[in-house]
Please model this.
Amino acid sequence: MKGAVIIVAGGTGSRMQSTLPKQFIELKGKPILLHTLEKFYSYDTSLQLIVVMHPDYVEYWKDLCRTLGFTVKHDVVAGGKERFFSVKSGLARLRDDIEVVAVHDAVRPLFSAQTLSNCFDALKNHRAVVPAIPLIDSIREVDEKGNRHVDRSRYKLVQTPQCFDRQLLEKSYLQEYKKTFTDDASVVESVDQSIFLVDGNQENVKITTSSDLLFCESIFS
Amino acid sequence: MKGAVIIVAGGTGSRMQSTLPKQFIELKGKPILLHTLEKFYSYDTSLQLIVVMHPDYVEYWKDLCRTLGFTVKHDVVAGGKERFFSVKSGLARLRDDIEVVAVHDAVRPLFSAQTLSNCFDALKNHRAVVPAIPLIDSIREVDEKGNRHVDRSRYKLVQTPQCFDRQLLEKSYLQEYKKTFTDDASVVESVDQSIFLVDGNQENVKITTSSDLLFCESIFS
Model:
Protein backbone atom coordinates (compact mmCIF):
# COMPACT_ATOMS: atom_id res chain seq x y z
CA MET A 1 0.00 0.00 0.00
CA LYS A 2 1.41 3.38 -0.96
CA GLY A 3 1.24 5.72 1.99
CA ALA A 4 1.31 9.42 2.76
CA VAL A 5 1.63 11.32 6.02
CA ILE A 6 -0.12 14.62 6.64
CA ILE A 7 1.74 16.37 9.44
CA VAL A 8 -0.34 19.08 11.06
CA ALA A 9 1.90 21.89 12.31
CA GLY A 10 -0.75 24.48 12.99
CA GLY A 11 0.45 25.75 16.36
CA THR A 12 0.98 29.46 16.88
CA GLY A 13 2.83 29.23 20.20
CA SER A 14 0.29 30.71 22.59
CA ARG A 15 0.32 28.01 25.24
CA MET A 16 4.08 28.01 25.89
CA GLN A 17 4.40 31.81 26.13
CA SER A 18 6.67 31.56 23.15
CA THR A 19 6.47 33.74 20.07
CA LEU A 20 7.76 30.75 18.12
CA PRO A 21 5.11 28.10 17.43
CA LYS A 22 5.88 24.85 19.21
CA GLN A 23 6.71 22.85 16.10
CA PHE A 24 9.69 25.13 15.43
CA ILE A 25 11.12 25.04 18.95
CA GLU A 26 14.51 23.35 19.15
CA LEU A 27 14.88 19.91 20.63
CA LYS A 28 18.50 18.78 20.78
CA GLY A 29 19.52 21.45 18.29
CA LYS A 30 16.78 20.79 15.71
CA PRO A 31 13.20 22.04 15.33
CA ILE A 32 10.64 19.54 16.63
CA LEU A 33 9.00 19.33 13.21
CA LEU A 34 12.29 18.25 11.68
CA HIS A 35 12.61 15.38 14.17
CA THR A 36 9.08 14.31 13.27
CA LEU A 37 9.77 14.36 9.53
CA GLU A 38 13.03 12.45 9.97
CA LYS A 39 11.27 9.79 11.98
CA PHE A 40 8.73 9.07 9.23
CA TYR A 41 11.43 9.20 6.56
CA SER A 42 13.64 6.74 8.42
CA TYR A 43 10.66 4.39 8.83
CA ASP A 44 9.92 4.34 5.12
CA THR A 45 11.63 6.60 2.58
CA SER A 46 8.80 6.08 0.08
CA LEU A 47 6.12 7.81 2.19
CA GLN A 48 4.77 11.05 0.74
CA LEU A 49 5.30 13.65 3.48
CA ILE A 50 3.00 16.66 3.58
CA VAL A 51 3.38 19.37 6.20
CA VAL A 52 0.49 21.75 6.78
CA MET A 53 1.19 25.01 8.60
CA HIS A 54 -0.13 28.52 9.06
CA PRO A 55 0.48 30.52 5.85
CA ASP A 56 2.60 33.05 7.80
CA TYR A 57 5.23 30.41 8.51
CA VAL A 58 5.60 28.67 5.16
CA GLU A 59 8.49 30.85 3.98
CA TYR A 60 10.09 30.82 7.45
CA TRP A 61 10.10 27.03 7.37
CA LYS A 62 11.48 26.77 3.85
CA ASP A 63 14.29 29.16 4.79
CA LEU A 64 14.98 27.17 7.96
CA CYS A 65 15.26 23.92 5.97
CA ARG A 66 17.75 25.56 3.61
CA THR A 67 19.79 26.97 6.53
CA LEU A 68 19.86 23.59 8.30
CA GLY A 69 20.60 21.72 5.09
CA PHE A 70 17.49 19.57 5.63
CA THR A 71 16.98 17.63 2.44
CA VAL A 72 14.20 15.13 3.24
CA LYS A 73 11.67 15.80 0.53
CA HIS A 74 8.28 17.05 1.74
CA ASP A 75 5.42 19.22 0.53
CA VAL A 76 4.54 22.33 2.49
CA VAL A 77 0.89 23.40 2.39
CA ALA A 78 -0.83 26.43 3.92
CA GLY A 79 -3.44 25.36 6.49
CA GLY A 80 -6.75 26.71 7.67
CA LYS A 81 -8.09 28.21 10.86
CA GLU A 82 -9.04 24.91 12.50
CA ARG A 83 -7.19 21.59 12.41
CA PHE A 84 -10.05 20.21 10.30
CA PHE A 85 -9.36 22.67 7.47
CA SER A 86 -5.63 22.07 7.68
CA VAL A 87 -6.06 18.33 7.18
CA LYS A 88 -8.37 19.09 4.28
CA SER A 89 -5.66 21.24 2.67
CA GLY A 90 -3.21 18.38 3.15
CA LEU A 91 -5.58 15.90 1.51
CA ALA A 92 -5.75 18.11 -1.58
CA ARG A 93 -2.01 17.59 -2.06
CA LEU A 94 -2.03 13.75 -2.03
CA ARG A 95 -0.32 12.08 -4.99
CA ASP A 96 -2.70 10.08 -7.19
CA ASP A 97 -1.11 6.76 -6.31
CA ILE A 98 -1.57 7.11 -2.52
CA GLU A 99 -3.82 4.46 -0.95
CA VAL A 100 -3.47 5.03 2.80
CA VAL A 101 -2.98 8.23 4.79
CA ALA A 102 -1.56 8.83 8.27
CA VAL A 103 -2.43 12.12 9.94
CA HIS A 104 0.03 13.18 12.62
CA ASP A 105 0.61 16.06 15.05
CA ALA A 106 3.92 17.79 14.29
CA VAL A 107 4.56 18.14 18.02
CA ARG A 108 4.60 14.38 18.63
CA PRO A 109 8.17 13.48 17.66
CA LEU A 110 8.25 10.47 20.01
CA PHE A 111 5.87 8.08 18.25
CA SER A 112 7.67 4.75 17.92
CA ALA A 113 8.32 2.70 14.79
CA GLN A 114 6.32 -0.02 16.55
CA THR A 115 3.31 2.30 16.89
CA LEU A 116 3.52 3.16 13.22
CA SER A 117 3.80 -0.44 12.12
CA ASN A 118 0.92 -1.40 14.43
CA CYS A 119 -1.15 1.14 12.49
CA PHE A 120 -0.02 0.20 8.99
CA ASP A 121 -0.36 -3.54 9.68
CA ALA A 122 -3.92 -3.09 10.91
CA LEU A 123 -4.80 -1.10 7.79
CA LYS A 124 -4.66 -4.37 5.85
CA ASN A 125 -7.91 -5.38 7.57
CA HIS A 126 -9.42 -2.09 8.77
CA ARG A 127 -10.14 1.25 7.17
CA ALA A 128 -9.55 3.47 10.20
CA VAL A 129 -6.80 2.72 12.72
CA VAL A 130 -5.82 4.79 15.73
CA PRO A 131 -3.09 4.24 18.35
CA ALA A 132 -4.26 4.47 21.96
CA ILE A 133 -2.89 3.83 25.44
CA PRO A 134 -4.54 3.01 28.77
CA LEU A 135 -5.15 5.72 31.34
CA ILE A 136 -2.72 5.64 34.28
CA ASP A 137 -4.49 8.28 36.36
CA SER A 138 -8.03 8.06 37.66
CA ILE A 139 -10.48 10.26 35.79
CA ARG A 140 -13.63 12.10 36.79
CA GLU A 141 -16.53 13.20 34.67
CA VAL A 142 -17.32 16.89 35.17
CA ASP A 143 -20.50 18.81 34.37
CA GLU A 144 -22.64 21.59 35.77
CA LYS A 145 -23.99 19.24 38.47
CA GLY A 146 -20.57 18.37 39.84
CA ASN A 147 -18.14 15.57 39.17
CA ARG A 148 -18.04 11.84 39.60
CA HIS A 149 -15.70 8.89 39.40
CA VAL A 150 -15.78 6.85 36.20
CA ASP A 151 -14.14 3.53 35.51
CA ARG A 152 -10.85 4.44 33.80
CA SER A 153 -10.52 1.00 32.21
CA ARG A 154 -13.44 2.02 29.98
CA TYR A 155 -11.41 4.83 28.39
CA LYS A 156 -8.27 5.11 26.30
CA LEU A 157 -6.05 8.06 25.49
CA VAL A 158 -5.81 8.57 21.76
CA GLN A 159 -2.59 9.51 19.96
CA THR A 160 -1.44 10.10 16.43
CA PRO A 161 -0.52 8.99 13.73
CA GLN A 162 -4.15 8.16 12.96
CA CYS A 163 -4.26 6.08 9.80
CA PHE A 164 -6.99 5.68 7.20
CA ASP A 165 -7.94 4.33 3.85
CA ARG A 166 -7.56 7.30 1.54
CA GLN A 167 -11.04 7.22 0.05
CA LEU A 168 -12.64 6.99 3.48
CA LEU A 169 -10.63 9.94 4.76
CA GLU A 170 -11.42 12.07 1.73
CA LYS A 171 -15.11 11.26 2.03
CA SER A 172 -15.09 12.08 5.76
CA TYR A 173 -13.54 15.47 5.15
CA LEU A 174 -16.35 16.43 2.79
CA GLN A 175 -18.57 16.93 5.85
CA GLU A 176 -19.37 20.29 7.34
CA TYR A 177 -16.96 21.20 10.16
CA LYS A 178 -18.20 20.53 13.70
CA LYS A 179 -16.67 21.77 16.95
CA THR A 180 -16.60 18.22 18.31
CA PHE A 181 -13.95 17.19 15.76
CA THR A 182 -10.91 17.10 18.03
CA ASP A 183 -9.03 14.54 15.97
CA ASP A 184 -9.34 12.62 12.71
CA ALA A 185 -10.96 9.61 14.33
CA SER A 186 -13.86 11.83 15.42
CA VAL A 187 -14.26 13.13 11.87
CA VAL A 188 -14.16 9.67 10.30
CA GLU A 189 -16.41 8.17 12.96
CA SER A 190 -19.14 10.63 12.16
CA VAL A 191 -19.58 9.11 8.69
CA ASP A 192 -20.51 5.87 10.47
CA GLN A 193 -17.12 4.28 10.24
CA SER A 194 -15.91 2.28 13.24
CA ILE A 195 -12.39 2.91 14.52
CA PHE A 196 -9.91 0.12 15.19
CA LEU A 197 -7.57 0.77 18.11
CA VAL A 198 -3.97 -0.47 18.22
CA ASP A 199 -1.32 -0.02 20.90
CA GLY A 200 0.41 3.35 20.94
CA ASN A 201 3.55 4.09 22.94
CA GLN A 202 3.48 5.92 26.22
CA GLU A 203 6.36 8.31 25.36
CA ASN A 204 4.37 9.63 22.39
CA VAL A 205 3.31 12.82 24.16
CA LYS A 206 1.99 15.91 22.46
CA ILE A 207 4.39 18.72 23.36
CA THR A 208 2.20 21.45 24.83
CA THR A 209 4.17 22.70 27.83
CA SER A 210 7.81 23.35 28.66
CA SER A 211 7.85 20.28 30.89
CA ASP A 212 6.77 18.13 27.92
CA LEU A 213 9.74 19.60 26.10
CA LEU A 214 12.06 18.65 28.95
CA PHE A 215 10.62 15.14 28.85
CA CYS A 216 11.33 14.82 25.14
CA GLU A 217 14.84 16.13 25.59
CA SER A 218 15.54 13.51 28.21
CA ILE A 219 14.20 10.74 25.96
CA PHE A 220 16.27 11.95 23.00
CA SER A 221 19.51 11.99 25.01
CA MET B 1 -6.07 22.75 60.96
CA LYS B 2 -3.60 20.08 61.99
CA GLY B 3 -2.75 17.89 59.04
CA ALA B 4 -1.32 14.48 58.27
CA VAL B 5 -0.15 12.89 55.05
CA ILE B 6 -0.55 9.19 54.33
CA ILE B 7 1.97 8.30 51.65
CA VAL B 8 1.10 5.06 49.91
CA ALA B 9 4.27 3.28 48.80
CA GLY B 10 2.78 -0.08 47.95
CA GLY B 11 4.55 -0.76 44.67
CA THR B 12 6.41 -3.99 44.17
CA GLY B 13 8.24 -3.06 41.00
CA SER B 14 6.56 -5.33 38.46
CA ARG B 15 5.76 -2.73 35.79
CA MET B 16 9.30 -1.39 35.38
CA GLN B 17 10.95 -4.82 35.19
CA SER B 18 12.82 -3.82 38.27
CA THR B 19 13.26 -5.97 41.35
CA LEU B 20 13.26 -2.76 43.36
CA PRO B 21 9.80 -1.25 43.89
CA LYS B 22 9.43 2.10 42.17
CA GLN B 23 9.31 4.20 45.32
CA PHE B 24 12.87 3.12 46.16
CA ILE B 25 14.38 3.79 42.74
CA GLU B 26 16.94 6.58 42.73
CA LEU B 27 16.13 9.95 41.28
CA LYS B 28 19.11 12.31 41.35
CA GLY B 29 20.86 10.13 43.91
CA LYS B 30 17.93 9.72 46.29
CA PRO B 31 15.01 7.27 46.48
CA ILE B 32 11.80 8.70 45.02
CA LEU B 33 10.01 8.22 48.34
CA LEU B 34 12.60 10.37 50.05
CA HIS B 35 12.00 13.22 47.58
CA THR B 36 8.28 12.94 48.27
CA LEU B 37 8.73 13.05 52.04
CA GLU B 38 11.10 16.03 51.80
CA LYS B 39 8.62 17.93 49.68
CA PHE B 40 5.83 17.61 52.27
CA TYR B 41 8.24 18.41 55.09
CA SER B 42 9.52 21.54 53.37
CA TYR B 43 5.93 22.66 52.78
CA ASP B 44 5.02 22.37 56.45
CA THR B 45 7.26 20.82 59.08
CA SER B 46 4.30 20.25 61.39
CA LEU B 47 2.56 17.70 59.13
CA GLN B 48 2.39 14.17 60.51
CA LEU B 49 3.99 11.99 57.81
CA ILE B 50 2.92 8.36 57.57
CA VAL B 51 4.40 6.00 54.98
CA VAL B 52 2.59 2.77 54.22
CA MET B 53 4.53 0.03 52.46
CA HIS B 54 4.59 -3.72 51.93
CA PRO B 55 5.71 -5.44 55.16
CA ASP B 56 8.70 -6.99 53.34
CA TYR B 57 10.24 -3.55 52.78
CA VAL B 58 9.77 -1.88 56.16
CA GLU B 59 13.17 -2.90 57.49
CA TYR B 60 14.85 -2.22 54.14
CA TRP B 61 13.48 1.34 54.21
CA LYS B 62 14.49 1.98 57.80
CA ASP B 63 18.02 0.79 57.01
CA LEU B 64 18.11 2.95 53.91
CA CYS B 65 17.10 6.04 55.92
CA ARG B 66 19.87 5.35 58.41
CA THR B 67 22.43 4.84 55.62
CA LEU B 68 21.39 8.04 53.88
CA GLY B 69 21.23 9.99 57.13
CA PHE B 70 17.59 10.88 56.39
CA THR B 71 16.23 12.44 59.55
CA VAL B 72 12.78 13.80 58.57
CA LYS B 73 10.50 12.21 61.14
CA HIS B 74 7.87 9.86 59.71
CA ASP B 75 5.94 6.78 60.75
CA VAL B 76 6.33 3.60 58.75
CA VAL B 77 3.33 1.29 58.63
CA ALA B 78 2.91 -2.14 57.00
CA GLY B 79 0.24 -2.01 54.28
CA GLY B 80 -2.30 -4.43 52.90
CA LYS B 81 -2.83 -6.24 49.63
CA GLU B 82 -4.82 -3.47 47.94
CA ARG B 83 -4.29 0.29 48.16
CA PHE B 84 -7.57 0.49 50.10
CA PHE B 85 -6.20 -1.62 52.94
CA SER B 86 -2.94 0.30 52.97
CA VAL B 87 -4.72 3.62 53.43
CA LYS B 88 -6.74 2.00 56.20
CA SER B 89 -3.54 0.95 57.97
CA GLY B 90 -2.27 4.50 57.61
CA LEU B 91 -5.46 5.93 59.13
CA ALA B 92 -5.00 3.75 62.20
CA ARG B 93 -1.75 5.57 62.90
CA LEU B 94 -3.13 9.14 62.88
CA ARG B 95 -2.32 11.26 65.91
CA ASP B 96 -5.38 12.21 67.97
CA ASP B 97 -5.05 15.92 67.17
CA ILE B 98 -5.12 15.49 63.38
CA GLU B 99 -8.09 17.18 61.67
CA VAL B 100 -7.33 16.86 57.94
CA VAL B 101 -5.62 14.09 55.99
CA ALA B 102 -3.89 14.12 52.60
CA VAL B 103 -3.42 10.76 50.88
CA HIS B 104 -0.59 10.72 48.36
CA ASP B 105 1.12 8.30 45.98
CA ALA B 106 4.79 7.86 46.94
CA VAL B 107 5.73 7.84 43.26
CA ARG B 108 4.45 11.38 42.65
CA PRO B 109 7.39 13.48 43.84
CA LEU B 110 6.49 16.35 41.49
CA PHE B 111 3.31 17.70 43.09
CA SER B 112 3.79 21.44 43.52
CA ALA B 113 3.48 23.53 46.67
CA GLN B 114 0.73 25.37 44.80
CA THR B 115 -1.22 22.14 44.28
CA LEU B 116 -0.91 21.33 47.97
CA SER B 117 -2.01 24.79 49.07
CA ASN B 118 -4.91 24.68 46.59
CA CYS B 119 -6.04 21.53 48.40
CA PHE B 120 -5.52 22.74 51.97
CA ASP B 121 -7.14 26.11 51.26
CA ALA B 122 -10.22 24.44 49.81
CA LEU B 123 -10.50 22.20 52.88
CA LYS B 124 -11.67 25.26 54.82
CA ASN B 125 -14.96 25.08 52.90
CA HIS B 126 -15.11 21.48 51.62
CA ARG B 127 -14.67 18.08 53.19
CA ALA B 128 -13.14 16.30 50.18
CA VAL B 129 -10.71 18.02 47.84
CA VAL B 130 -8.89 16.51 44.90
CA PRO B 131 -6.40 18.06 42.44
CA ALA B 132 -7.19 17.49 38.76
CA ILE B 133 -5.94 18.64 35.37
CA PRO B 134 -7.59 18.85 31.93
CA LEU B 135 -7.02 16.14 29.34
CA ILE B 136 -4.64 17.13 26.53
CA ASP B 137 -5.21 14.05 24.38
CA SER B 138 -8.50 12.97 22.87
CA ILE B 139 -10.10 10.03 24.63
CA ARG B 140 -12.30 7.19 23.46
CA GLU B 141 -14.73 5.10 25.43
CA VAL B 142 -14.13 1.39 24.93
CA ASP B 143 -16.44 -1.56 25.57
CA GLU B 144 -17.37 -4.91 24.09
CA LYS B 145 -19.30 -3.20 21.27
CA GLY B 146 -16.33 -1.14 20.09
CA ASN B 147 -15.12 2.34 20.89
CA ARG B 148 -16.35 5.86 20.40
CA HIS B 149 -15.24 9.47 20.70
CA VAL B 150 -16.24 11.31 23.86
CA ASP B 151 -15.93 15.01 24.61
CA ARG B 152 -12.64 15.32 26.52
CA SER B 153 -13.67 18.63 28.10
CA ARG B 154 -16.15 16.60 30.17
CA TYR B 155 -13.34 14.70 31.91
CA LYS B 156 -10.44 15.54 34.19
CA LEU B 157 -7.37 13.56 35.15
CA VAL B 158 -7.17 13.10 38.87
CA GLN B 159 -3.94 13.36 40.87
CA THR B 160 -2.84 13.15 44.48
CA PRO B 161 -2.56 14.48 47.21
CA GLN B 162 -6.27 13.92 47.77
CA CYS B 163 -7.31 15.75 50.92
CA PHE B 164 -10.13 15.09 53.34
CA ASP B 165 -11.69 15.93 56.62
CA ARG B 166 -10.39 13.25 58.97
CA GLN B 167 -13.76 12.03 60.24
CA LEU B 168 -15.13 11.76 56.72
CA LEU B 169 -12.12 9.75 55.57
CA GLU B 170 -12.26 7.40 58.54
CA LYS B 171 -15.98 6.84 58.03
CA SER B 172 -15.45 6.18 54.31
CA TYR B 173 -12.82 3.54 55.00
CA LEU B 174 -15.22 1.59 57.19
CA GLN B 175 -16.94 0.40 53.99
CA GLU B 176 -16.38 -3.00 52.45
CA TYR B 177 -13.65 -2.92 49.80
CA LYS B 178 -14.85 -2.66 46.19
CA LYS B 179 -12.79 -3.19 43.04
CA THR B 180 -13.93 0.18 41.69
CA PHE B 181 -11.98 2.01 44.41
CA THR B 182 -9.04 3.26 42.33
CA ASP B 183 -8.35 6.28 44.49
CA ASP B 184 -9.51 7.88 47.73
CA ALA B 185 -12.01 10.14 46.00
CA SER B 186 -13.85 7.07 44.73
CA VAL B 187 -13.96 5.62 48.25
CA VAL B 188 -15.20 8.84 49.83
CA GLU B 189 -17.68 9.49 47.04
CA SER B 190 -19.39 6.19 47.68
CA VAL B 191 -20.55 7.40 51.11
CA ASP B 192 -22.48 10.10 49.28
CA GLN B 193 -19.90 12.83 49.70
CA SER B 194 -19.33 15.18 46.78
CA ILE B 195 -15.75 15.89 45.71
CA PHE B 196 -14.41 19.39 45.19
CA LEU B 197 -11.82 19.67 42.41
CA VAL B 198 -8.91 22.13 42.51
CA ASP B 199 -6.13 22.72 39.97
CA GLY B 200 -3.31 20.20 40.07
CA ASN B 201 0.00 20.69 38.27
CA GLN B 202 0.79 19.01 34.99
CA GLU B 203 4.27 17.79 36.03
CA ASN B 204 2.73 15.79 38.88
CA VAL B 205 2.99 12.47 37.06
CA LYS B 206 2.78 9.07 38.68
CA ILE B 207 6.07 7.35 37.93
CA THR B 208 5.12 4.03 36.36
CA THR B 209 7.58 3.63 33.49
CA SER B 210 11.25 4.36 32.89
CA SER B 211 10.30 7.27 30.64
CA ASP B 212 8.35 8.85 33.53
CA LEU B 213 11.54 8.51 35.53
CA LEU B 214 13.53 10.28 32.81
CA PHE B 215 10.93 13.03 32.80
CA CYS B 216 11.24 13.53 36.56
CA GLU B 217 15.01 13.58 36.33
CA SER B 218 14.87 16.34 33.74
CA ILE B 219 12.48 18.37 35.90
CA PHE B 220 14.68 17.94 38.98
CA SER B 221 17.82 19.13 37.17
Summary: Helices of chain A lie at 32-43, 58-68, 83-91, 113-122, 166-172, 184-189, 210-220. Chain A has a mean pLDDT of 93. The longest strand of chain A covers residues 3-9. Chain A touches chain B at residues 130, 132, 135-143, 146-152, 154-159, 180, 182-183, 185-186, 189, 194-195, 197, 202-203, 206, 208-209, 211, 214-215, 217-219 (CB under 8 Å).
